[in-house]
Specification:
By secondary structure, the chain is mainly α.
């Protein structure tokens, strides 16, 4: 029988866990806003390039995007609860993020339609997801998650 030593996490852990939760709540908010709260009037106020991208997104994209943000939110909650399951959940979220961001950037020609500055947010989202995954792995290694 193996026993896991559970040590008390430092203050930085709690700060990072709360920031991760807020970040993933923002992701859920943006997903809900884009797919359920955005009215036709709101869509007409968007730049035509953005509207073109939104209208050309395949239906599966909505589900992968939603899956990514909701698994990220669940992983953040698990991190706050100090559960090892956060690591795998962050990993699944990262995989979904890579799929949807990769599709937006490469298959939908995001840079060609919106310009090079349109890469900033996808790269930030990917970087944060990678950080969350590896940070949760480190938290497990430090004995903060059980």
């Amino acid at each position: 029988m193996t026993t896991t030593v559970r040590t008390k996490p430092n203050t930085a852990f709690w700060i990072i866990a709360v920031i991760a939760l807020l970040w993933n709540l923002m992701g859920v908010f943006f997903w809900v806003s884009e797919y359920f709260l955005m009215t036709a009037e709101m869509k007409t106020s968007l730049p035509p390039e953005r509207l073109e991208l939104m209208n050309s997104m395949p239906a599966w994209g909505m589900y992968v995007y939603g899956f990514a943000v909701f698994t990220g939110l669940l992983a953040s909650i698990l991190l706050l609860a100090r559960k090892k399951l956060a690591v795998g959940t962050f990993g699944i979220s990262l995989l979904a993020i890579l799929i949807i961001q990769g599709y937006w950037v490469f298959a939908m020609d995001l840079v060609g339609v919106m310009g090079p500055q349109s890469l900033i947010m996808p790269l930030i989202v990917i970087a944060v997801a990678i950080f969350e995954y590896f940070y949760s792995k480190g938290a497990t290694r430090n004995g903060w998650l059980t």
